[in-house]
Amino acid sequence: MVRFTPLDSAVPEDATEGEGDPGRVLTVPNAISAVRLACVPLFLWLLFGAGKQSAAAVLLGLLGATDWVDGTVARRYHQVSTLGKVLDPVADRVLVATSVIAIVVRGAVPVWFGAATLAREAVVSIAVLLLASMGASRIDVLWVGKAGTFGLLFAYPAFLLGHGSAHWQEPVRIVAWVAGLTGLTLAWVAAASYLPAARRAWTDGRSGHRGRPGSREQGR
Hints:
Four Helix Bundle (Hemerythrin (Met), subunit A), 7 helices, disordered N terminus, disordered C terminus
């Protein structure tokens, strides 16, 4: 997944990896993705409805920490499905967009930081869709992208937890800024680093397509 979740992945993994019955709907990973998606309105209610900011921050931290669970379960237990390939990234992106915007509205992070986070997510997500539509081969996730994702996954709940005037919140905000600025920088470095890899993946994908039996280019 290109995720905030992990907020980082490029072209999706081979569709056949760990796949059982692609048409299945009632699977454990799909249930996990659905629960994570259902937690988005709960997060918003805790933050703005019930006024329980700390509880909202803890829930967001748990959702970020368990981001990898649904995909791992799907591959480990051969429950990869067509629905899961859509539901998992949709849940990730809804969670990312909603949480970042909500935390900006709450005033826990400045607008520029939230905008930079969402812009990076949008750039990578659009690139993934374009490469996939052009038949590009899979791009391996870079360690710098994983590190950036980890930093942001930690930073946003910490920003929310540290938003306030209590004495204990000041050091939490400092830690959040260190993790957030480091994570955002690494995330954009990873996005730039994917450019040559994306070019090679597109070339490899096009070459593979031309070599398939029945392709229009074959025999020219």
